[in-house]
Amino acid sequence: MSSFVVEVDDFNGRQGVLDIGGGHVMTPAYVASDIGCHAMGDAPVDPRCRTSVGEYDLWVHRSDIERMRRHPEKKEAMEDAVCERMRRIESPAKLLHYTFFTDVAGLPKESFVDLLRLQYRAGANVIEIPRPFCDTHAYERAVQAALEWQQNTWSETPLMGIARTASDLAMLERYLPQLGGIGIDCRRLDKPLLYQVRKRLKKRDIWVHAFSAPLQYHEVKNQGTLGMLINWFGVDTVNTIALSDHVRQYFADLLSRMEGEERANLVKTIRYFAPCDYSTYTFEKMEEYYGEGRPLSDFCDCPVCRNLTVGGPVDNLPEFYRMNHMHRAFAYYTEAEKYQRALINNETGLFIAGKPYAAEIIRRAVGFHSPEVILQKSPGGGISGGGSPLSGRPAPAESEIPQKKGMTNIPVP
After folding, report:
1. Helix (H), strand (E) at residue 33
2. Beta strands in 104-156 (DSSP E)
3. How high is the pLDDT of residue 162?
4. Is the predicted pLDDT of residue 377 greater than 60, yes or no?
5. Backbone phi, then psi, for 40, in 5-degree steps?
6. Label partner for 61 (CA 20 to 30 A): which of 114, 192, 241, 398?
7. For 167, how many CA atoms within 13 A lie in the half-sphere containing its CB?
8. What is the DSSP letter of 274?
9. Nearest Cα to 326, choosing from 344, 345, 346, 306?
10. Quick count: other Cβ atoms within 10 Å of Cβ 19?
11. β-pairing verdict for 13-20 and 23-27
12. Beta strands in 204-359, from DSSP E residues, in sequence order
Protein backbone atom coordinates (compact mmCIF):
# COMPACT_ATOMS: atom_id res chain seq x y z
CA MET A 1 0.00 0.00 0.00
CA SER A 2 0.98 3.66 -0.24
CA SER A 3 0.26 6.39 2.26
CA PHE A 4 1.19 10.04 2.50
CA VAL A 5 1.54 12.46 5.41
CA VAL A 6 2.07 16.22 5.16
CA GLU A 7 4.80 17.31 7.58
CA VAL A 8 5.24 20.97 6.56
CA ASP A 9 2.43 23.07 5.08
CA ASP A 10 4.02 26.30 3.84
CA PHE A 11 2.25 28.96 1.78
CA ASN A 12 4.72 28.25 -1.03
CA GLY A 13 4.39 24.45 -1.02
CA ARG A 14 4.40 21.43 1.23
CA GLN A 15 6.82 18.77 2.43
CA GLY A 16 5.76 15.28 3.34
CA VAL A 17 6.60 11.58 3.48
CA LEU A 18 5.27 9.02 1.01
CA ASP A 19 5.31 5.35 2.04
CA ILE A 20 5.58 3.29 -1.12
CA GLY A 21 7.38 0.14 -2.19
CA GLY A 22 8.38 -0.67 1.36
CA GLY A 23 10.31 2.60 1.74
CA HIS A 24 9.85 6.20 2.81
CA VAL A 25 10.19 8.91 0.17
CA MET A 26 10.58 12.51 1.30
CA THR A 27 8.65 14.94 -0.87
CA PRO A 28 8.72 17.00 -2.98
CA ALA A 29 10.48 14.37 -5.06
CA TYR A 30 11.36 13.73 -8.68
CA VAL A 31 10.24 10.51 -10.36
CA ALA A 32 12.64 9.59 -13.14
CA SER A 33 11.54 7.94 -16.37
CA ASP A 34 12.84 4.48 -17.15
CA ILE A 35 15.31 6.05 -19.58
CA GLY A 36 16.51 8.46 -16.91
CA CYS A 37 16.88 5.61 -14.43
CA HIS A 38 18.98 3.59 -16.89
CA ALA A 39 21.15 6.61 -17.72
CA MET A 40 21.78 7.37 -14.06
CA GLY A 41 22.75 3.76 -13.46
CA ASP A 42 25.72 4.30 -15.79
CA ALA A 43 26.88 7.41 -13.94
CA PRO A 44 29.85 7.55 -11.55
CA VAL A 45 29.10 6.64 -7.95
CA ASP A 46 27.02 9.46 -6.51
CA PRO A 47 24.32 9.59 -3.80
CA ARG A 48 21.88 10.83 -6.45
CA CYS A 49 22.47 7.88 -8.79
CA ARG A 50 19.72 5.71 -7.30
CA THR A 51 16.07 6.63 -7.56
CA SER A 52 13.36 5.98 -4.98
CA VAL A 53 10.55 5.87 -7.55
CA GLY A 54 10.84 5.17 -11.28
CA GLU A 55 8.19 5.46 -13.99
CA TYR A 56 7.65 3.92 -17.39
CA ASP A 57 5.40 5.90 -19.70
CA LEU A 58 3.70 3.66 -22.27
CA TRP A 59 2.23 5.61 -25.19
CA VAL A 60 -0.97 4.01 -26.49
CA HIS A 61 -2.65 4.52 -29.88
CA ARG A 62 -6.16 3.38 -30.70
CA SER A 63 -4.55 0.93 -33.14
CA ASP A 64 -2.60 -0.58 -30.22
CA ILE A 65 -5.84 -1.25 -28.38
CA GLU A 66 -7.39 -2.87 -31.45
CA ARG A 67 -4.27 -4.97 -32.04
CA MET A 68 -4.36 -6.27 -28.47
CA ARG A 69 -8.03 -7.23 -28.84
CA ARG A 70 -7.70 -9.04 -32.15
CA HIS A 71 -4.29 -10.68 -31.85
CA PRO A 72 -3.67 -12.46 -28.51
CA GLU A 73 -0.09 -13.33 -29.49
CA LYS A 74 0.74 -9.65 -30.11
CA LYS A 75 -0.93 -8.70 -26.85
CA GLU A 76 1.21 -11.21 -24.99
CA ALA A 77 4.38 -9.95 -26.68
CA MET A 78 3.54 -6.35 -25.80
CA GLU A 79 2.85 -7.23 -22.18
CA ASP A 80 6.12 -9.17 -21.94
CA ALA A 81 8.01 -6.17 -23.33
CA VAL A 82 6.38 -3.83 -20.80
CA CYS A 83 7.22 -6.16 -17.92
CA GLU A 84 10.82 -6.30 -19.08
CA ARG A 85 11.04 -2.49 -19.23
CA MET A 86 9.62 -2.29 -15.72
CA ARG A 87 11.98 -4.98 -14.45
CA ARG A 88 14.97 -2.95 -15.63
CA ILE A 89 13.98 0.05 -13.49
CA GLU A 90 16.22 -0.31 -10.45
CA SER A 91 14.00 1.53 -7.99
CA PRO A 92 12.25 0.33 -4.83
CA ALA A 93 8.97 1.67 -6.17
CA LYS A 94 7.69 1.75 -9.76
CA LEU A 95 4.83 3.29 -11.72
CA LEU A 96 3.44 2.35 -15.12
CA HIS A 97 1.65 5.26 -16.78
CA TYR A 98 -0.49 5.03 -19.92
CA THR A 99 -0.11 8.10 -22.11
CA PHE A 100 -2.96 7.94 -24.58
CA PHE A 101 -2.97 9.59 -27.98
CA THR A 102 -6.00 11.74 -28.66
CA ASP A 103 -7.56 9.07 -30.88
CA VAL A 104 -8.28 6.97 -27.77
CA ALA A 105 -11.67 8.34 -26.72
CA GLY A 106 -12.65 5.29 -24.71
CA LEU A 107 -11.66 1.75 -23.79
CA PRO A 108 -13.61 -1.49 -24.24
CA LYS A 109 -14.16 -3.17 -20.86
CA GLU A 110 -11.87 -6.07 -21.77
CA SER A 111 -9.03 -3.71 -22.74
CA PHE A 112 -9.59 -1.59 -19.64
CA VAL A 113 -9.22 -4.62 -17.38
CA ASP A 114 -6.17 -5.78 -19.35
CA LEU A 115 -4.45 -2.45 -18.64
CA LEU A 116 -5.19 -2.79 -14.93
CA ARG A 117 -3.89 -6.35 -14.85
CA LEU A 118 -0.75 -5.42 -16.76
CA GLN A 119 0.25 -2.92 -14.09
CA TYR A 120 -0.20 -5.55 -11.40
CA ARG A 121 1.77 -8.11 -13.40
CA ALA A 122 4.56 -5.62 -14.11
CA GLY A 123 5.04 -4.89 -10.42
CA ALA A 124 3.67 -1.35 -10.26
CA ASN A 125 3.31 -0.20 -6.65
CA VAL A 126 0.26 1.89 -7.55
CA ILE A 127 -2.26 0.93 -10.22
CA GLU A 128 -3.48 3.93 -12.17
CA ILE A 129 -7.00 3.99 -13.50
CA PRO A 130 -6.38 4.55 -17.24
CA ARG A 131 -7.64 7.96 -18.41
CA PRO A 132 -8.43 8.10 -22.15
CA PHE A 133 -9.81 11.25 -23.83
CA CYS A 134 -13.36 10.94 -22.53
CA ASP A 135 -15.52 13.26 -20.45
CA THR A 136 -15.63 13.25 -16.65
CA HIS A 137 -18.87 11.24 -16.44
CA ALA A 138 -17.43 8.46 -18.60
CA TYR A 139 -14.24 8.43 -16.54
CA GLU A 140 -16.23 8.17 -13.31
CA ARG A 141 -17.69 4.92 -14.62
CA ALA A 142 -14.10 3.75 -15.21
CA VAL A 143 -13.20 4.63 -11.61
CA GLN A 144 -16.15 2.62 -10.34
CA ALA A 145 -15.18 -0.31 -12.57
CA ALA A 146 -11.60 -0.21 -11.30
CA LEU A 147 -12.74 -0.22 -7.67
CA GLU A 148 -14.99 -3.20 -8.43
CA TRP A 149 -12.07 -4.98 -10.14
CA GLN A 150 -9.85 -4.31 -7.11
CA GLN A 151 -12.46 -5.76 -4.78
CA ASN A 152 -13.11 -8.84 -6.91
CA THR A 153 -9.42 -9.64 -7.34
CA TRP A 154 -8.53 -8.99 -3.68
CA SER A 155 -5.72 -6.75 -4.89
CA GLU A 156 -4.01 -4.75 -2.13
CA THR A 157 -2.18 -2.51 -4.59
CA PRO A 158 -3.70 0.98 -4.22
CA LEU A 159 -5.46 2.67 -7.12
CA MET A 160 -4.67 6.15 -8.45
CA GLY A 161 -7.22 8.24 -10.30
CA ILE A 162 -6.01 10.57 -13.07
CA ALA A 163 -7.31 14.13 -13.38
CA ARG A 164 -7.03 16.02 -16.64
CA THR A 165 -9.48 18.79 -15.74
CA ALA A 166 -10.82 20.51 -12.62
CA SER A 167 -14.09 18.58 -13.01
CA ASP A 168 -12.11 15.32 -12.97
CA LEU A 169 -10.53 16.38 -9.70
CA ALA A 170 -13.87 17.24 -8.10
CA MET A 171 -15.20 13.82 -9.12
CA LEU A 172 -12.14 11.93 -7.84
CA GLU A 173 -12.35 13.74 -4.52
CA ARG A 174 -15.55 11.84 -3.79
CA TYR A 175 -13.64 8.54 -4.05
CA LEU A 176 -10.55 9.55 -2.07
CA PRO A 177 -11.03 7.19 0.86
CA GLN A 178 -10.72 4.34 -1.65
CA LEU A 179 -7.82 5.75 -3.70
CA GLY A 180 -4.11 5.71 -2.89
CA GLY A 181 -3.50 9.06 -4.56
CA ILE A 182 -4.40 11.36 -7.42
CA GLY A 183 -2.39 11.79 -10.59
CA ILE A 184 -2.41 15.03 -12.58
CA ASP A 185 -2.02 14.75 -16.36
CA CYS A 186 0.12 17.79 -17.19
CA ARG A 187 0.58 17.24 -20.93
CA ARG A 188 -1.87 20.04 -21.59
CA LEU A 189 -1.31 22.34 -18.64
CA ASP A 190 -4.70 23.20 -17.17
CA LYS A 191 -4.40 26.24 -14.89
CA PRO A 192 -7.82 25.71 -13.24
CA LEU A 193 -6.78 22.13 -12.46
CA LEU A 194 -3.57 23.18 -10.69
CA TYR A 195 -5.45 25.92 -8.87
CA GLN A 196 -8.02 23.39 -7.62
CA VAL A 197 -5.28 20.97 -6.52
CA ARG A 198 -3.88 23.75 -4.34
CA LYS A 199 -7.31 24.76 -3.05
CA ARG A 200 -8.73 21.28 -2.39
CA LEU A 201 -5.80 19.00 -1.62
CA LYS A 202 -2.76 20.97 -0.44
CA LYS A 203 -3.63 20.81 3.25
CA ARG A 204 -4.72 17.16 3.17
CA ASP A 205 -2.74 13.93 3.56
CA ILE A 206 -3.32 12.91 -0.06
CA TRP A 207 -0.47 12.04 -2.42
CA VAL A 208 -0.57 14.08 -5.63
CA HIS A 209 1.67 13.05 -8.54
CA ALA A 210 2.23 15.04 -11.75
CA PHE A 211 2.58 12.96 -14.92
CA SER A 212 4.29 14.40 -18.01
CA ALA A 213 5.15 17.84 -16.60
CA PRO A 214 6.29 20.07 -19.50
CA LEU A 215 9.77 21.53 -19.84
CA GLN A 216 8.50 24.79 -21.27
CA TYR A 217 5.55 27.09 -20.55
CA HIS A 218 4.03 29.73 -22.78
CA GLU A 219 3.72 32.05 -19.75
CA VAL A 220 7.47 32.69 -20.15
CA LYS A 221 7.53 32.43 -23.93
CA ASN A 222 8.53 28.74 -23.75
CA GLN A 223 11.90 29.62 -22.23
CA GLY A 224 11.39 28.23 -18.72
CA THR A 225 9.64 25.67 -16.55
CA LEU A 226 8.06 25.17 -13.12
CA GLY A 227 10.50 22.36 -12.36
CA MET A 228 10.13 21.16 -8.78
CA LEU A 229 8.21 24.33 -7.91
CA ILE A 230 5.06 22.70 -9.20
CA ASN A 231 5.01 21.78 -5.51
CA TRP A 232 3.68 25.32 -4.89
CA PHE A 233 0.30 23.98 -6.01
CA GLY A 234 0.47 20.98 -3.67
CA VAL A 235 2.01 18.45 -6.06
CA ASP A 236 4.31 16.04 -4.20
CA THR A 237 6.06 14.05 -6.92
CA VAL A 238 6.66 14.95 -10.55
CA ASN A 239 7.74 13.20 -13.73
CA THR A 240 8.71 15.18 -16.83
CA ILE A 241 7.21 14.43 -20.21
CA ALA A 242 8.80 11.56 -22.14
CA LEU A 243 8.84 10.95 -25.89
CA SER A 244 7.22 7.81 -27.20
CA ASP A 245 9.45 5.02 -28.49
CA HIS A 246 8.22 5.76 -32.03
CA VAL A 247 9.21 9.44 -31.82
CA ARG A 248 12.61 8.62 -30.34
CA GLN A 249 13.22 6.12 -33.13
CA TYR A 250 12.12 8.68 -35.71
CA PHE A 251 14.68 11.20 -34.47
CA ALA A 252 17.36 8.53 -34.25
CA ASP A 253 16.71 7.55 -37.87
CA LEU A 254 16.65 11.21 -38.90
CA LEU A 255 19.99 11.85 -37.22
CA SER A 256 21.51 8.77 -38.82
CA ARG A 257 20.77 10.22 -42.27
CA MET A 258 22.37 13.56 -41.44
CA GLU A 259 25.99 14.55 -41.36
CA GLY A 260 28.14 17.35 -40.04
CA GLU A 261 26.60 20.77 -39.52
CA GLU A 262 23.07 19.68 -40.47
CA ARG A 263 23.13 17.03 -37.76
CA ALA A 264 24.60 19.36 -35.15
CA ASN A 265 22.00 22.04 -35.90
CA LEU A 266 19.16 19.59 -35.26
CA VAL A 267 20.64 18.55 -31.93
CA LYS A 268 21.02 22.20 -30.91
CA THR A 269 17.22 22.53 -30.92
CA ILE A 270 17.08 20.31 -27.81
CA ARG A 271 16.38 22.18 -24.57
CA TYR A 272 18.62 22.31 -21.52
CA PHE A 273 17.14 22.61 -18.02
CA ALA A 274 19.22 25.12 -16.03
CA PRO A 275 18.52 24.58 -12.32
CA CYS A 276 20.12 27.94 -11.47
CA ASP A 277 17.06 29.86 -12.70
CA TYR A 278 14.71 27.21 -14.23
CA SER A 279 15.28 28.44 -17.77
CA THR A 280 15.00 25.87 -20.57
CA TYR A 281 16.82 27.43 -23.52
CA THR A 282 17.81 25.41 -26.54
CA PHE A 283 21.52 24.76 -26.89
CA GLU A 284 21.41 27.05 -29.90
CA LYS A 285 20.15 29.95 -27.75
CA MET A 286 22.68 29.16 -25.05
CA GLU A 287 25.50 29.42 -27.57
CA GLU A 288 24.07 32.72 -28.77
CA TYR A 289 23.79 34.17 -25.25
CA TYR A 290 26.87 32.70 -23.57
CA GLY A 291 29.17 31.29 -26.24
CA GLU A 292 29.95 27.63 -26.84
CA GLY A 293 32.90 27.75 -24.44
CA ARG A 294 30.82 28.70 -21.36
CA PRO A 295 31.12 25.94 -18.71
CA LEU A 296 27.86 24.13 -18.04
CA SER A 297 28.98 24.04 -14.40
CA ASP A 298 27.93 27.72 -14.27
CA PHE A 299 24.35 26.47 -14.64
CA CYS A 300 24.37 23.07 -12.90
CA ASP A 301 26.69 21.15 -10.57
CA CYS A 302 25.62 17.64 -11.59
CA PRO A 303 28.27 15.05 -12.60
CA VAL A 304 27.32 15.42 -16.28
CA CYS A 305 27.75 19.20 -16.48
CA ARG A 306 30.82 19.41 -14.26
CA ASN A 307 33.38 19.08 -17.07
CA LEU A 308 31.40 20.18 -20.14
CA THR A 309 30.86 23.45 -21.98
CA VAL A 310 27.75 24.76 -23.73
CA GLY A 311 29.07 23.47 -27.05
CA GLY A 312 30.51 20.27 -25.60
CA PRO A 313 27.41 18.02 -25.63
CA VAL A 314 26.67 18.91 -29.24
CA ASP A 315 30.14 17.76 -30.24
CA ASN A 316 29.48 14.35 -28.71
CA LEU A 317 26.36 13.38 -30.68
CA PRO A 318 26.15 9.63 -29.87
CA GLU A 319 26.06 10.40 -26.16
CA PHE A 320 23.97 13.55 -26.37
CA TYR A 321 20.54 12.17 -25.53
CA ARG A 322 21.78 9.91 -22.75
CA MET A 323 23.72 12.76 -21.16
CA ASN A 324 20.79 15.15 -21.36
CA HIS A 325 18.47 12.63 -19.68
CA MET A 326 21.08 12.02 -17.01
CA HIS A 327 21.63 15.75 -16.42
CA ARG A 328 17.90 16.43 -16.12
CA ALA A 329 17.41 13.62 -13.62
CA PHE A 330 20.35 14.74 -11.47
CA ALA A 331 19.23 18.38 -11.62
CA TYR A 332 15.63 17.62 -10.67
CA TYR A 333 16.69 15.37 -7.80
CA THR A 334 19.00 18.04 -6.44
CA GLU A 335 16.34 20.74 -6.75
CA ALA A 336 13.85 18.50 -4.94
CA GLU A 337 16.27 18.06 -2.04
CA LYS A 338 16.97 21.80 -1.90
CA TYR A 339 13.29 22.65 -1.82
CA GLN A 340 12.66 20.06 0.89
CA ARG A 341 15.23 21.88 3.03
CA ALA A 342 13.73 25.27 2.15
CA LEU A 343 10.29 24.07 3.26
CA ILE A 344 11.63 22.60 6.50
CA ASN A 345 13.74 25.70 7.28
CA ASN A 346 11.01 28.19 6.33
CA GLU A 347 13.10 29.63 3.47
CA THR A 348 10.83 29.06 0.50
CA GLY A 349 10.58 32.74 -0.38
CA LEU A 350 14.32 33.04 -0.90
CA PHE A 351 14.36 29.84 -2.95
CA ILE A 352 11.58 30.92 -5.31
CA ALA A 353 13.10 34.38 -5.72
CA GLY A 354 16.14 32.68 -7.25
CA LYS A 355 14.00 30.82 -9.82
CA PRO A 356 12.50 33.73 -11.80
CA TYR A 357 11.02 31.63 -14.60
CA ALA A 358 9.08 29.39 -12.22
CA ALA A 359 8.03 32.41 -10.14
CA GLU A 360 6.60 34.10 -13.23
CA ILE A 361 4.66 30.98 -14.25
CA ILE A 362 3.16 30.75 -10.76
CA ARG A 363 2.19 34.41 -10.74
CA ARG A 364 0.41 34.14 -14.07
CA ALA A 365 -1.33 30.90 -13.11
CA VAL A 366 -2.64 32.54 -9.96
CA GLY A 367 -3.62 35.69 -11.84
CA PHE A 368 -5.74 33.50 -14.11
CA HIS A 369 -8.18 33.03 -11.22
CA SER A 370 -7.77 36.11 -9.10
CA PRO A 371 -7.74 39.84 -9.87
CA GLU A 372 -4.81 40.21 -7.52
CA VAL A 373 -1.70 38.09 -7.26
CA ILE A 374 -1.91 36.11 -4.03
CA LEU A 375 1.73 35.11 -3.86
CA GLN A 376 3.01 36.32 -0.53
CA LYS A 377 6.32 36.49 1.30
CA SER A 378 7.30 33.70 3.59
CA PRO A 379 9.42 34.57 6.64
CA GLY A 380 12.44 33.37 4.65
CA GLY A 381 12.12 36.15 2.09
CA GLY A 382 9.91 37.51 -0.66
CA ILE A 383 9.26 35.77 -3.89
CA SER A 384 9.14 38.85 -6.03
CA GLY A 385 12.36 39.92 -7.50
CA GLY A 386 15.19 39.41 -9.64
CA GLY A 387 16.18 38.13 -12.94
CA SER A 388 18.64 35.38 -13.64
CA PRO A 389 21.63 35.06 -11.31
CA LEU A 390 23.79 34.67 -14.38
CA SER A 391 25.46 37.67 -15.94
CA GLY A 392 25.75 38.28 -19.66
CA ARG A 393 22.15 37.47 -20.59
CA PRO A 394 20.66 40.09 -22.92
CA ALA A 395 18.08 42.29 -21.22
CA PRO A 396 14.75 42.09 -23.09
CA ALA A 397 12.51 45.02 -23.78
CA GLU A 398 9.95 45.45 -21.01
CA SER A 399 7.17 45.25 -23.58
CA GLU A 400 8.08 41.62 -24.32
CA ILE A 401 6.22 40.42 -21.22
CA PRO A 402 2.51 41.27 -20.90
CA GLN A 403 1.88 43.09 -17.62
CA LYS A 404 -0.87 42.36 -15.15
CA LYS A 405 -1.93 44.70 -12.41
CA GLY A 406 -0.18 43.90 -9.15
CA MET A 407 2.45 41.66 -10.76
CA THR A 408 6.18 42.11 -10.47
CA ASN A 409 7.65 41.56 -13.89
CA ILE A 410 10.55 39.15 -14.39
CA PRO A 411 12.74 39.49 -17.48
CA VAL A 412 12.36 36.69 -19.96
CA PRO A 413 14.46 36.60 -23.12
Report:
1. strand 32-33
2. 127-128
3. 97
4. no
5. -65, -30
6. 192
7. 7
8. B
9. 306
10. 15
11. antiparallel
12. 208-213, 237-240
